[in-house]
């Protein structure tokens, strides 16, 4: 059982507050490597003390997933779909409690937390339906008496290593297709935000997900990560996080040639042309930049504005950004919460300082918020230039750098001048330009006249060093399936 978390409105269902790992259908309260504390980034108060598992305990979770695999894989797709539908129903039923957990451990405003829960639930619903649509093919062979059969089978035991910024959605976006495909899973949530993961595990248990099929392990990533990526029983690793860590995980997975999907860092450009609808472009940049206080991999990290509307765009964006209310996620009207930790706010300060030092102009914000600690003012920087840190690195904070441009070909070159290729945005009312620029942008996803691009029906993922594979959509379940070819010879094949 968990402990009281805060003096904010309490959970309606106290059993969703857990302070133990979840392995093979049991709550594991003792960690062989000690314990760690989860804090509310908004208030600094301690939320829970959780067990830090050892490599041996994590190996035990993988063993449990391996033992559960044959039984889960043998269930019909319809039966797996029914269990997932029950999980979806329970997540929806307990949406307010899940949103509350997200606010207290991650810091985002409660309205955004509610949106994340709905987003997380949508993947469970979607892949419950996709479970019944996994199908192979039959082809004629060169010999008319033979047949070529292609089957799709679950890849096996999977590991999901998830980030702190979307503690519900990043789990369901991986676990739902894995379970739908007939795989079992071990989830390692971020140490900053494990409480939401444990609540999802409790709801999965209530939905009838069998013991060992869905496990949640807790602890220090440096200690237990090598077990998750190196254990030969694990056949697939899915990770969302930085490109730097993704490279390391891919190296570790290569030893046992695991299947891997990686949703890694971004440096998303947003390109606003002179012919854009100004208010549409402003709204799109606000949505793409300031959601979750800028702490999202698809946040607009560089905003290029054509010279004809640059000054008007700058003034209007600064006006809108200055209106954003900063505070605790439960306070009415709050649009921006805290940064997740001190390292995050230090990076924001470094990027702003470097930009100003090299000639950028602070139009609004530019410093820590008066609330102090992990709060930072929503900021707009004008006259940003290539080469500044804020254009080369992912800021992951509420800072919009505005970069003027004149020529379409040149701005495409600048937008593509990065190792990343996750998302990009463009704003224009010229259909020919939209087709031309969208084709030229090197990104796995392009938002056109919109800053909101992610949903369960769309294939989420990037190119270049922003990752491998796709999540969501009809393609997402393929990440958890292997193809088997049957060469059927003789008259019996006819």
Fold and architecture overview:
With 494 residues, the chain is an alpha/beta fold. Helices cover 37% and strands 20% of the residues. The protein has 14 helices and 20 strands. It has a 7-stranded mixed sheet with strand order 14-15-16-13-12-17-18, with helices on both faces. A 6-stranded mixed sheet has the order 9-8-7-10-11-19, sandwiched between helices. The protein has a 3-stranded antiparallel sheet with strand order 5-6-20, with no helix packed on it. β7, α5 and β8 form a beta-alpha-beta unit. α1 runs parallel beside α7 and α3 packs antiparallel against α6. The longest helix has 21 residues. The chain is globular. Belongs to the aldehyde dehydrogenase family. Pfam families: Aldedh (PF00171). Keywords: Oxidoreductase. It comes from Nocardia vinacea.
Strand order of the largest sheet: 14-15-16-13-12-17-18
Helix content: 25-40%
Task: Label the overall shape.
Answer: globular
Average of pLDDT: 96
Assembly status: single chain
Query: Pairing-aware structural class of the strands and helices?
Result: alpha/beta
Give the biggest beta sheet: 7 strands, mixed
Strand content: 15-25%
Protein name: NAD-dependent succinate-semialdehyde dehydrogenase
Keywords: Oxidoreductase
Pfam family, one: Aldedh
Organism: Nocardia vinacea
In short:
The chain is α/β, with parallel strands linked by helices. The protein has 14 helices and 20 strands. The strands form five sheets. A seven-stranded mixed sheet has the order 14-15-16-13-12-17-18, sandwiched between helices. Strands 9-8-7-10-11-19 form a six-stranded mixed sheet, with helices on both faces. Strands 5-6-20 form a three-stranded antiparallel sheet, with no helix packed on it.
């Amino acid at each position: 059982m968990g402990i009281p978390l805060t003096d904010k409105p309490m959970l309606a269902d106290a059993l969703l507050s857990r302070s133990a790992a979840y392995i093979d259908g049991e709550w594991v309260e003792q960690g062989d490597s000690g314990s760690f504390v989860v804090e509310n980034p908004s208030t600094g108060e301690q939320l829970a003390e959780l067990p830090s598992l050892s490599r041996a305990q994590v190996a035990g979770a993988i063993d449990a997933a391996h033992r559960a695999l044959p039984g889960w894989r043998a269930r019909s797709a319809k039966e797996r779909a029914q269990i997932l539908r029950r999980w979806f129903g329970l997540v929806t039923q307990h949406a307010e409690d899940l949103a509350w957990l997200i606010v207290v451990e991650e810091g985002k405003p409660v309205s955004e937390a509610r949106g994340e829960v709905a987003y997380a639930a949508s993947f469970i619903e979607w892949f419950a339906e996709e479970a019944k649509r996994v199908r192979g093919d039959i082809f004629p062979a060169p010999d008319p008496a033979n047949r070529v059969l292609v089957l799709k089978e679950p890849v096996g035991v999977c590991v999901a290593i998830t980030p702190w910024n979307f503690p519900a959605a990043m789990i369901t976006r991986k676990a739902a297709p894995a379970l739908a495909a007939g795989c079992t899973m071990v989830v390692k949530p971020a140490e900053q935000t494990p409480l939401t993961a444990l609540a999802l595990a409790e709801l999965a248990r209530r939905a009838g997900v069998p013991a060992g099929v869905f496990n949640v392990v807790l602890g220090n990533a440096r200690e237990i990560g090598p077990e998750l990526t190196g254990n030969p029983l694990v056949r697939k690793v899915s990770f969302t996080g930085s490109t730097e860590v993704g490279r390391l995980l891919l190296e570790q997975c290569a030893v046992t040639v695991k299947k891997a999907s990686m949703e890694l860092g971004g440096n998303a450009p947003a390109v606003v042309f002179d012919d854009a609808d100004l208010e549409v472009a402003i709204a799109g940049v606000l949505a793409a930049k300031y959601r979750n206080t800028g702490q999202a991999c698809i946040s607009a990290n560089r905003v290029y504005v054509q010279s004809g509307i640059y000054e008007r765009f700058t003034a209007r964006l600064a006006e809108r950004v200055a209106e954003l209310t900063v505070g605790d996620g439960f306070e009415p009207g709050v649009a921006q919460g805290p940064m997740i930790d001190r390292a995050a706010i230090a990076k924001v300060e470094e990027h702003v300082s470097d930009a100003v030092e090299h000639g950028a102009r602070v139009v609004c914000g530019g410093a820590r918020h008066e609330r102090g600690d992990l709060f930072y003012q929503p900021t707009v920087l004008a006259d940003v230039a290539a080469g500044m840190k804020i254009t080369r690195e992912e800021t992951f904070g509420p800072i919009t750098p505005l970069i003027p441009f004149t020529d379409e070909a040149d701005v495409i070159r600048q937008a593509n001048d990065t190792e990343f290729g996750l998302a990009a945005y463009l704003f224009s009312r010229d259909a020919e330009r939209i087709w031309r620029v969208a084709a030229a942008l090197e990104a796995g996803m392009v938002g056109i006249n919109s800053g909101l691009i992610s949903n369960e029906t769309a294939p989420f993922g990037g190119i270049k060093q922003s990752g491998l594979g796709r999540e969501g959509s009809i393609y997402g379940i393929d990440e958890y399936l292997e193809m088997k070819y049957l060469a059927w010879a003789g008259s019996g094949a006819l």
